[in-house]
Amino acid sequence: MQKKKLVVLTGAGISAESGLKTFRDSDGLWEGYDIEQVATPRAWKSNPSLVLNFYNQRRKNVFEAIPNVAHILLAGLQEKFEVIIVTQNIDDLHERAGSDNVLHLHGEILKRRSEVNPDIVSSITQDMLPGELAPDGTAWRPDIVWFEEPVPRISAAAELVRKADIFAVVGTSLVVYPAAGLVNYAPYHIPKFIVDKKIPDSISLPNLIAIENLATAGMKELSDRLLSENF
Questions:
Q1: Which part of the chain has CATH 3.40.50.1220?
Q2: Does residue 106 have an active-site annotation?
Q3: Which of 3, 132, 182, 193 could cross-link with 82 by S-S, CB 3.0 to 4.6 Å?
Q4: 133-167 per-position pLDDT tens digit
Q5: Looking at beta carbons, which pairs linking 98-107 to residues 24 or more positions away fall under 8 Å?
């Protein structure tokens, strides 16, 4: 029998329990940095060394983090479902937990790309240094979608959600657009779940089950439901 397609949108809340913080934890600062200075195209143009240093530290943080129960439970659901994860996170914790099908909406900290050609990409595990050039002769930059930049994978993500048999949101407050708008592509009739420590009152979707909890505890409840009920 063909497995049902479970599409899961994940956000910062699932990585936070592995110790990875985001700028939303502290009034627009990210580990003490002003987002305007390290995560915009303008920042890259004005001070690329600062931007590289910032992302070098984020990469080290990711290497120090380990997948938590929520990541592992999502990977475990692959036994029953065709699980597709659309994540807003730039870490590789889903992959390390064993998830096979992950789309990174906002890029990946373990990759770098040409400054001008987003199709020229390579893996990066060490620090990125100023002056390093891509094969096209332009500077390497982090393969991250910065604030004020379009999200090139959003159309592919919307198509995945549109084809879902079950849709879940885990660890995101649905305030970051365009990712938050993906919920609107889920078919009207399918089961939908939201797991987050604070679910906005404004969220109103048909066939919605809200699980207001941290990602690890909430994901345990969601996994139990999906495995025990007739989905």
A1: 1-20+69-106+151-231
A2: yes
A3: 3
A4: 999 999 999 999 999 999 999 999 999 999 999 99
A5: 98/72, 99/71, 99/74, 99/75, 103/153, 103/156, 103/157, 103/160, 104/153, 105/145, 105/151, 105/153, 105/154, 105/157, 105/179, 106/144, 106/145, 106/151, 106/179, 107/142, 107/143, 107/144, 107/145
